[in-house]
Amino acid sequence: MDTLNKYSHYNQHELRGDIPEGNSLTNTEKIHPRIINLSHRKLQLREINLLKRGLKFTPTPNEDKTQLGADIDEFGRRLRINYIFCEDNEENEEEENKPLVRNKSDWIPKPTKDKDLEETIKTLKTNSLTSNKNVKDNLTREEKTALQNLKSDKSIIIKEADKGNAVVIMDREYYRDNILNMLQDEMSYEVTDKKLDRQTKSYFYGLPKIHKSKEISNAISEQNSEYIELLTPNDLKFRPIVGGPSSVTQNLSHFIDIVLKPLCREVPSFIRDDLDFLNHLPKTVNPNSELITFDIVSLYTNIPHDLGITAVKYWLENTENVIENRLTKEFILASLKLILERNIFYFNGTYYHQKKRNSYGY
Known about the structure:
It comes from Mytilus edulis. This is Reverse transcriptase domain-containing protein. It is a single chain. The chain has helices at residues 12-16, 45-51, 65-92, 115-130, 141-152, 172-183, 214-223, 250-264, 274-280, 305-317, 329-341; strands at 35-37, 156-160, 167-171, 189-191, 203-208, 227-229, 238-243, 344-347, 350-354. It is an alpha/beta fold. Strands 2-3-1-6 form a four-stranded mixed sheet. It has a three-stranded antiparallel sheet with strand order 4-9-8, with no helix packed on it. A two-stranded antiparallel ribbon has the order 5-7.
């Protein structure tokens, strides 16, 4: 327990955390890594403790009563809208005429005649804005310092692993060079002079596939700690992601996704989730049977545009009463073609166009 980690300047017991009495770890027990440092930066213990919380951890925000008041007003607005329209929608709107999507509304209804509802909204706002209770900070002073130090260090970049939820720290140059190497695939990407404004810009980034790296796997086995150090492995691959929640095709993409989703259930190989998979398994099997699985490498990014559109066209033509009859097949296919062929994103000061294969993102 007191031996030094081969790659680390901290004792293993410091990195593993508190161990309940009577449950001491042995060197043979496998520990799932929570932090993988591939950079030249030597992390301080307080920085490690902070990162162990994960990238989904949210520090206690500073109190902003103006924003809080606006949020409560919006919540009250939605409560009133639900009160006014909920029953009307259920009684008067026929199923076939219901809209698939709705435009966002900023309409502010007047106070309702429901005294209980109005009293609830009033009490919520009054109590929230007049409360003098001090909210307990969920970060220690040392962790706050660690957070500022990590944020201000422009030489590193921090990403979540593609699988396993580990936090991965990399040198920014190492990360940039790996992503640029991916974008040199001329079959899939090309530099474009088309530019998008900041509000509708899509960004390209990569999630490190630590589970596919033999060098990282070896380091994890050797160090057997929550904190792993390994300098810039040569075999690390990345999952390409295009993030564009406000891109020009986002709304259309969301709409087509809703329209086409019912088609999935028509595909014989469709499995909804884990429970659905279990329901497909036979109740009895031959004792000599073998369960075989396989994985398709980079499935989404290996589907050519024309093949994807052809597949959708096939299922549109060979299924009945699945897709909304308000929409024509031509409209769906034209929309799909537009979304696939207008995928423009930004990375490291340059705009790229994905000319082939599908992107994976949000």
